[in-house]
Every structure is written in structure tokens, then in C-alpha cells.
């Protein structure tokens, strides 16, 4: 595999990870994920972010380092923007092969390097405004970007080429194979990467949206010519596009999001399911886009990706032993962790010998500041009047979303 020169003396050395594992042990990656490192060659050489021993990643990166005329043993500086192990898992092995390498990282990374890898020597903490001159015109500057994604995160900027090494910021799921740059993507690939950017954002970063907005404002002073994230494609034709995409995604944490509804439903014996088609039809008749997910059949990763962009949410779920249907509790827990706030909501569902789902639903979502219209619940099988009532509520929600 060849290293790709993304700017004068700056190379992408990346690994494509396959689809069989879960990212962070939680999130499915049916189309894989890329982990990008970058080599900057001045008179001295710096490697920015690394990979972990995952699905042949080390072999891929070593091969590309060699292609760029470098090696783990010969780099002078290792820049660690972020300590999560997808970008640092290789550290102990790398350090064993190159004990003199100078590690540059944020101040908050120092104890994490010790905790994860027991490394304390040749570690140099830096912060906003600090720089490292590699010689040959290559100067790296550093900017703290706390909580994008962990508290210790920083970004690195190369001043002569205008390349921003943004680590998780502006990243995406999905492998990057033949087309590495934004200007090479086909229309289908553009859609693919936009969807995988939103899924990555909602799954990994959304909790920290306020910090993302602060970081974007902070970076506005830089003359960014290339955005080089640690996951996903590189933006050289229109770096502003991915920055604005992230700004828009981050803005959804305060609502309103896009004028569409995500409908999440579960059913045990078909009594809640009976209303699914009428509800979908009702929303569509109002001219509002509806994204439909059944849980637990669909993974919450995909549910969250649609919910994050939707101003309205509809939940259909039965009561299960005095509480919510358990897979829906998990969805709501993830929504709570991910800060899916300030949405407009309608909930419906059946119960058997006792209700209870609605009470738990209200308790679990209290902190999310949702605006809920009157729910519809019924015992046993829904009669025509109940179906009509739920349909009318769904239409009312759709009209509210349309009028935003
Ligand atoms: Fe790609 Fe937060 O690590």
C-alpha cells in the first residue's frame, strides 16, 4: 500500500479496518473504518497520531511509512493529539523500537500515557500557541481542543501547508480506499461519507457538541487549506464543507434539528405493531420525512444517527412488566448519554395486565427537555377509535415539525 502525499512533505499513512468488530466495543462498522496517521517531513520527521494493532493496521502503516522513505525507528517526533487507544494502541511497541522518540502531547495526556502505557520519559507537554519547528520550513503548532473527543484532545496545524490534523474532529466511519480526497469522490461516495460522518458524530462525539462548537470557533483563526482527520477522507478542495457539516451536526444538541421525524418502535405480540403503518402513513400525508427503526432488530447506532438529525421523534413501545419494553430503555439510555435534547415527541403503546411504560419513559427523559404531546396507550388490542386517536396525534406532531 502506498503512502499518499497530501501536501508538500506531508503523507497520509493509514489503516483500513474491516467490518467484523465493533468500534469502541459498541458501534457496528458494516463498512469498516479508517484510522489515519500523518507523516510530516522537514529536516526532522514527525508522525502525527498512530494506530492500534487491529486488523492488520500495523502492517499497513509500516508499509506506507517505508513507501514514504521513513520507518518507526527513524521518526524524531511522535505527536499524540488524543489518547484513545484507536490512536495510541501501538505506542508501547513503537517506543520499544524507537526509545529516543520525543512524544509531544497535551498536558492532560501525560498522566494518561503513564496510565495506559507506563511511559514517562521523553514526553513533552504542549498547549495552545506552542509550536515545534521541524526545520525545512515545516512548523507544527498546537491547539487544545478539549472534549473533542476526550478532555486531553488537541489538534495540530502545519503552517507552511495549512494542513489541520484534527484527529477525531471532522472524522467519519467507513473505510477509505481508492478515493482519499473530497475532490475525488463520486456522488454516491459523497452521500456514503456524509451518512457515515453523521453516524460517527452522533455515536462518538455528540455528547460533546458544545465543545465541538467552541473548537470550531477557536480554529477559525487558522488559514486551513486541508482538513486531515484521523478517520475518513481528507478535505483539500473544500475544507470548509466538513467544518460546516460538523458545525450543523453540533448545533442539533440544542434543537431544533432537521424538519423530519424518526419513528422508533418495538412490539411483543403485534398489538403495538398494529399502529405502525397507520402512523407512518399519517406523517407522510403531512409531507414530513419519516425514518423508521424497529428495535431491538436494528442497532441503536443507526437509530441514533437518524434521531440526532430529527426535530421530531415518535416512540411506539409496549409496557413490559410494569416498565418500558427493555430494548427501548437501552435506546433511551443511549439518547440520554448522547444528549438528544430539545425534540418534539409523541409516544404510544399497548399494555396487558398493567401499564407503566409511560411513567418510566417520562422519568428517563426528564433531563432531555423534550416537548411531549399527549401519549396514546391502550389495554390489549387497539380499537378503531384508539388507532384514529394515535393517527391524529402523529399528524399533529408532523404539523408542528413542518412549522418549525
Ligand atoms: Fe478515534 Fe476518540 O478516538
Automatic annotation (TrEMBL):
InterPro entries listed in its UniProt record: Flavodoxin/NO_synth (IPR008254), Flavoprotein-like_sf (IPR029039), Metallo-B-lactamas (IPR001279), ODP_dom (IPR045761), RibonucZ/Hydroxyglut_hydro (IPR036866), Rubredoxin-O_OxRdtase (IPR016440)
Taxonomic superkingdom: Bacteria
Residues annotated as domain Flavodoxin-like: 261-398
Leader sequence residues: none
Pfam families xrefs: Flavodoxin_1, ODP
Listed name of the protein: FprA family A-type flavoprotein
GO molecular function per UniProt: electron transfer activity; FMN binding; metal ion binding; oxidoreductase activity
UniProt record similarity statement: In the N-terminal section; belongs to the zinc metallo-hydrolase group 3 family.
